[in-house]
Amino acid sequence: MLYRRFACGLAMLMTGAALGSTVWHPVGTANASDSFPFGSELMLDSAPMRGSKRVPMIEIEEDGAASIDLWCSSATAQATVSDAAITIVPGAPVPGQCEPERQARDADLLAALAQVTGWRRKGEVVELSGPTPLRFRLMTN
Prior knowledge:
This protein has helices at 2-23, 100-114, and strands spanning 41-44, 57-60, 65-69, 74-81, 86-90, 118-122, 125-129, 134-138. With 141 residues, the chain is α+β, with helices and mostly antiparallel strands. It has a domain at 41-138: Beta Barrel (Lipocalin). It has an eight-stranded antiparallel sheet with strand order 5-4-3-2-1-8-7-6, with helices on one face. The chain is globular and about 40 Å long.
């Protein structure tokens, strides 16, 4: 009888410890894999356009300063990031010498970034939500 109680108590203790370590997070602390990756390069989850190896990237600093490399040109922006919300106000792009298709894709991407309202992170992936959802991958090289 004593052995059974000890075994049940040990099993409950081990189960509680396992659940507690994977579920419980004190208020005010965030798991590093869920926090916004300030200062990191985020590459658009897209294949390069035909004839180029370039893929758009964005980098947002903690002070909100952002740099955006588009399909053809580049731009700076101001971003505000909170727990699950984000706003990006892009500046005018630096003109690039590209064909009209790339310039049109630049304009589309800047418009989509200006309309994002939320974000979430799943490991190495950051998803920006808005009328046009955008998916970026954290550059880890």
